[in-house]
Write a structure and sequence with these properties.
Elements lengths: L3 H12 L4 E4 L6 H8 L5 E4 L3 H15 L3 E5 L3 H4 L2 H10 L3 E7 L26 E3 L7 H18 L7 E6 L34 H11 L5 E5 L6 H14 L3 E3 L11 E2 L2 H4 L5 H7 L3 E5 L6 H7 L6 E5 L14 E3 L3 H8 L8 H25 L5 H10 L1
Parallel strand pairs: 1-2, 1-3, 3-4, 4-6, 5-6, 7-8, 7-10, 8-9, 10-11, 11-12
């Protein structure tokens, strides 16, 4: 098989920002593997177990914020990527999944490692793509280039997530002179850029939001899972201080450096009395980020009440996690909290509300400190020490 087109497609991946590839061994995927490992601008890692490999790629993409290529051979090997792909979809982590495949005429013909790979991951990828089966016609290269551009752009646009590119290959799967590196196509694939901008609201809409916001006395900010952001911490610090609004965060929110951060809600919300629980309920709930791990916090926020619920989300459908959604605001948290910090605040009532949350947090921290001060060293204490660091 002539690998020139595949070398060019991998080179296009590099131009679009891919720097890492996780590759699982296999024969049918040999054309893809050769194209990736022969490109010196991509750092390739090889793992024989597909399930483990997919989670390694997931972690790499989560840490870097850039898409990671994930490559495997045909058949059940591709199914072993599924758990990590589902996790990437709901965690909004960009993966570009390449699965090698048999030619279409061999599907359902009892050929080894041949399954129905079209739409294999269902609705747990942002989109399914299929590369051309043959590259003889000039339009095939144009089509493949378009697919790579669209797939990588999509993985990084809106709510990030995985995309699936299925690649059928005919035999022979290896070049006749395997030691010869075939050069990329002379014309080079066309780069299609995805230009994005930061969303904002019209000034009249801002004024309506600020006026409405200023009427609430008990405002609670809840952060779901999210990536570290120094800018967000600075904006939330200013907002929480100026508006006397407690900030409650998921264990995976990455907001632990935020002053007066309420991180022990799962411990105390399951134990407080009904009067305290009723008082802690907000009349305005502001949420952002992804899902919450804390079960007690979710149950607390799902209690029946008449509070308003504003959710901050730039794009895509917003989930009504707490059964109280009243506004979806298409902004980043950084932009929203910067503007709302200057809104007129209601004195005293907000300060007392924030103090109540702080009191519960302090009680929990003191109890934990006392407990571990008298606990003998062991796995439990070691875990506590690791979490604190």
């Amino acid at each position: 098989m002539n690998l020139s087109i595949l070398h060019s497609l991998v080179d296009l991946c590099v131009r679009k920002g891919l720097q890492q590839a996780v590759i699982c061994p296999g024969s049918r995927s040999a054309p893809l593997t050769l194209a990736f490992v022969r490109n010196k601008k991509i750092n390739c890692r090889t793992f024989s177990d597909e399930r483990s490999a997919a989670f390694i790629a997931l972690g790499m993409a989560q840490q870097t914020g850039y898409p990671v290529a994930l490559v495997c051979t045909s058949g059940s090997a591709a199914y072993n990527f599924a758990p990590a792909i589902a996790e990437a979809f709901f965690q909004q982590i960009p993966l570009v999944v390449f699965t090698a495949d048999r030619p279409k005429e061999w599907i359902d013909q009892l050929d080894g490692q041949t399954i129905r790979q079209a739409e294999l991951y269902g609705k747990h990828v942002k989109k399914y793509f299929e590369l051309p089966q043959d590259y003889e016609h000039p339009d095939a290269a144009w089509h493949a280039t378009r697919i790579i551009n669209e797939a990588i752009n999509l993985a990084q646009s809106g709510q990030h997530g995985p995309v699936h590119i299925n690649a059928p290959f005919r035999e022979p799967l290896y070049p006749k002179n395997e030691w010869i590196v075939e050069p990329p196509l002379s014309f080079g694939p066309k780069l299609i850029e995805n230009v994005s901008s930061r969303l904002d609201l019209e000034e009249s809409t801002w004024q309506n939001l600020i006026e409405s916001f200023s009427t609430y006395k008990r405002i609670l900010v809840v952060a779901g899972q999210g990536n570290p952001s120094q800018e967000l911490i600075e904006m939330l610090t200013q907002f929480s201080s100026q508006q006397s609004a407690p900030v409650v965060g998921d264990i995976l929110s990455n907001l632990h450096r935020l002053p007066s951060f309420n991180s022990h809600t799962d411990t105390y919300l399951g134990q407080i009395n009904d009067d305290d629980r009723h008082y802690l309920l907000p009349d305005l709930l502001i949420t952002f980020g992804k899902s919450l791990v804390s079960k007690n916090l979710k149950l607390f926020l799902r209690r029946p009440g008449s509070h308003a619920h504003w959710h901050l989300q730039e794009v895509d459908t917003a989930a009504d996690t707490f059964k109280s959604l009243t506004k979806v605001i298409r902004l980043t948290p950084e932009v929203f909290f910067t503007r709302l910090s200057v809104a007129e605040k209601v004195p005293n009532e907000r300060a007392a509300y924030k103090s109540k949350w702080a009191t519960q947090e302090l009680k929990c921290k003191e109890a934990l400190t006392k407990f571990f001060a008298t606990t003998q060293n062991g796995e439990f204490s070691l875990t506590h020490h690791l979490i604190n660091n």
